[in-house]
Amino acid sequence: MLIAVFAVAFAPATADASSRDITSTHAYLVASYKVLHAAVSTWSTVEASIHRLDLRFHAECPDVGAGSPQNEEDQKLSYEAAGALWATGYHTDAAIVHAYVKTVNRLTWSNPKITRDAHRLTRGLQEMTELQVPNICADVRAWGANSYGAAPANVKQYDEHVENIEIHEIPRSLLVPYVQPSEDGLRKRVEHLATRFEELEFMRGQDDWIALLEVLGVNE
What is the Cα–Cα distance from 32 to 175, expressed in whole angstroms? Predict the structure, then answer.
């Protein structure tokens, strides 16, 4: 359930690239390959965790939102459901993410912006592994008890918390000068895995979200 932020299209390193910059960029590429390869290879494990989440909510509150309106407040509940899926996926892949975070956090570049961007990325990923699965059953019940007026305040707070987690790749243009010609094969493998991951995330993520909403009886 990782977010695909590691795809990079690089040109060969320039002659004046520093040793530290080249080394850090190589380590970033290797770490990106490892995290993407692991995420793609274990996708079925994430799907199994999401299936267990569906079963849990089906046991606790099947169709709890049946008959609820489709409006702005409903969107807050449906986004909360998406957050539950992201939290489940990141918890499942926590070991993979933590290994990536540990590696990238040690990297530095002569350009402080690259270092800041790298650490901002790892901070966002770490926050996602700490994201909690909300009590959607209680939240939808509380919404219904309010005659489907305003969604519970904690739902808005949860949604805003998720939205404020920033996960952005290091701008490609900043890393281009530090990639060696010998890394072209690695770069292509990273790009291939990133594309594969995005395909899985798009195809399965939408289906998983719709399936969970159907369990809850909440509109999209």
Answer: 14
- Residue for token pair 């969970």: 212
* One-letter-per-residue 3-state SS of 142-199: HHHHCCCCCCCHHHHHHHHHHHCCCCCCCCHHHHHHHCCHHHHHHHHHHHHHHHHHHH
Residue 2 lies in a domain: no
What confidence tens digit (pLDDT) does each residue in 89-144 have? 999 999 999 999 999 999 999 999 999 999 999 999 999 999 999 999 999 999 99
- Domain residues for the domain of 85 are 19-216
User: How many other C-beta atoms can be found within 10 angstroms of the C-beta atom of residue 206?
Assistant: 11
The pLDDT confidence band at residue 201, using thresholds 50, 70 and 90, is confident
pTM for the model stands at: 0.88
Token pair, residue 58, equals 């089906």
Element (H, E) at 34: helix 19-41
Using CB atoms within 10 A of its CB, is residue 198 exposed (0-12), middle (13-18) or buried (19+)? middle
Are the C-beta atoms of 176 and 17 separated by less than 8 Å? Answer: no
Into how many domains does the chain fold?
1
Domain assignment of residue 171, yes or no: yes
Tell me if 163 is assigned to some domain: yes
Q: Would you tell me how many other CB atoms lie within 10 Å of the CB of residue 53?
A: 22
**Within a domain: 11:** no
217 by Cβ neighbours in 10 Å (0-12 / 13-18 / 19+) ranks as: middle
